[in-house]
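Supplementary Methods. Inverse-folding protocol.

Structures were first reduced to a discrete structure-token string of length 177. This string, shown here, constituted the complete conditioning input.
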């Protein structure tokens, strides 16, 4: 069994009871997925809109180019020892309903790790994972697929103990590339 898990926060297929947020893009010189600190800080608070036709109920975590997470999740990731996150205040709003919240943070997750052979994974349909390459990091993006977020089993256990039942933790071998 792996010491690492893929972190997901799925919306059930066909479900529209959770908000779907718009992507948070930066200038051409910066990317949320690069795993590096920004040379120029983005303007804060970041303004993030909820897509038209969706309700205002928010999930704990979104991939909207940026990793957008609840402050509650951010605080518990820090409590679990994750120390490679740059956080940026954001306001999520719904122009259709007037809903607005400042309870979320856009996170620049620092560190890309090449843990497996993505080309072979595409052939097999799942991810091979060399845990030694993670060098003990508690949370990171995959270098070959920076939209993928990986967490250590200690972080997973901490989040589960804190009641984060909306998150899904998948073994790398079961994660579809």
């Amino acid at each position: 069994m792996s010491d690492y898990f893929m972190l997901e926060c799925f919306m059930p297929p066909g479900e529209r009871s959770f908000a779907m947020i718009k992507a948070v893009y930066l200038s051409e010189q910066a990317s949320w997925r690069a795993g590096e600190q920004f040379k120029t800080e983005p303007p804060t608070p970041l303004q993030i809109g909820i897509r038209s036709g969706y309700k205002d109920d928010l999930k704990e975590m979104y991939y909207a180019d940026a990793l957008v997470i609840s402050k509650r999740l951010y605080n518990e990731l820090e409590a679990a020892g994750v120390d490679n996150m740059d956080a940026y205040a954001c306001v999520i709003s719904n122009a259709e309903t007037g809903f607005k919240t400042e309870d979320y943070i856009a996170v620049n997750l620092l560190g890309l790790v090449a843990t497996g052979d993505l080309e072979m994974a595409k052939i097999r349909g799942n991810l091979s994972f060399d845990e030694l390459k993670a060098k003990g990091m508690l949370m990171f993006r995959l270098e070959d697929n920076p939209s993928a977020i990986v967490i250590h089993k200690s972080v997973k256990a901490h989040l589960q103990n804190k009641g984060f039942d909306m998150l899904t933790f998948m073994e790398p071998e079961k994660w579809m590339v």
